[in-house]
Write a structure and sequence with these properties.
Blueprint: E1 5-12, H1 15-24, E2 28-33, E3 38-43, E4 46-52, E5 59-63, H2 79-88, E6 93-95, E7 105-110, E8 116-121
Parallel strand pairs: 1-4, 5-8
Antiparallel strand pairs: 1-5, 2-3, 3-4, 6-7, 7-8
Length: about 120
Amino acid sequence: MKLGAFSVSLSVKDINKSKSFYENLGFEVLGGDITQNWLIMKNESSVIGLFQGMFEDNILTFNPGWNQNAENLDSFTDIRDIQKQLKAKGMNLTSEADETTEGPASFTIKDPDGNLILIDQHR
């Protein structure tokens, strides 16, 4: 099962301080909009998202259809197919994508320790 590009979405208190901190670690802005309180940053193949005021806990994020540079892949497994495979394995999702639609969608699942995992397809 291919889940797509991986990143960690961090819930931050002050996006400007967090941006400066991660820049000091060698991260560069890849995307986002700091005026909307979110940035995507990258250091080599490591990708993090900084999100101020959007969610409470940190989230493991996978993006079907993208590579680690947020570039569209020619071929990928649609999020609805991933969701069906997980449900067939008896996994309980905490939110679901509408399987009657196409294009952008997302669903969430928690690991055994309560860590939230977001599968988020943008295309």
